[in-house]
Automatic annotation (TrEMBL):
This is Endo-1,4-beta-xylanase. It comes from Streptomyces misionensis. Residues 19-207 form the GH11 domain. Keywords: Carbohydrate metabolism, Glycosidase, Hydrolase, Polysaccharide degradation, Signal, Xylan degradation. It catalyses: Endohydrolysis of (1->4)-beta-D-xylosidic linkages in xylans. Residues 208-227 have a biased composition (Gly residues).
Amino acid sequence: MAAVVVAFALPGAAQAATTITSNSTGTNNGYFYSFWEQSSGATMTLGSGSNYSLTWNTAAQNVVAGTGWNPGTTNTVSYSGTWNCNGNCYLSLYGWTTNPLIEWYIVDNYGNYNPSSGATKLGSVTSDGSTYDLYKTTRVNAPSIEGTATFDQYWAVRQAKRTGGTITVANIFNAWKSLGLNLGTPNYEILATEGYQSSGSSDITVTSGGGSGGGTTPPPSGGGSGSGCSATFTNSSDWGSGFTGSVAVKNTGSSSINGWTVKLTFPGNQTVTSLWNGSYTQSGNTVTVKNASNNGSLAAGADTSFGFNAGYSGGNGAPTVSCTAG
């Protein structure tokens, strides 16, 4: 597998239309940026908003650059632009966590080398119109945001390559978690262009879709003293005209709750056809789910779940989700 690198950088600020040719991190127009190259051969230009462009050649050896956020979140990320690769390159949502130290990649496009080559596939998840194959690899005594260290890498590699679209980050994180691949405290997160002994160019603008990745919501206000709940959606299986979804419900308050209501608002024409461990009604693209009699009472910190089948045509984006206790 190609060497994976991170930016050992001195923080700094950049203004719009700033050209960067030396290793650095900082902020530009309120967005975090990172630029790292192994040897001189790449140029990054920070444009308006979150836009960046990158050109590189083989003299750079290895280059990683992009814009995003520090710290990262589970918010849905949307991006657009152009990406041209001659050789071994990745276009990824890329980030780090600490405690544990994890380097993670959600790869939307790559050149003539699949970054999962040589790794054992652990599973897959369908999200945002394609299947992502899931892998874990380990780096030994390698560069990291904490210096030279041994750490795991988590990979989600999209089968249908693309340059631009929406990444429902929570779907990928939840899929990793279901395989025992747990992330730690978020560090930075960027929509990264990476080139390894290759050449190419990119021009990318990245935005956050808001919410919590269409999956997790914080406890609602007004739910009563010490009460609250959260809900996390996962697309468990998708066959093109329908899918199976699951939702984990957790009591996030400091006291027991005796019931909960989850609302899922879909971005398309998704229609629930059956549901278990709860009761539901659907009005337009909004599905309201109430607890079943045997899974409504939850102690502080406890969780439960429900599942459902649904049909759709066209796109199958993740719903926005809210949970109300009581």
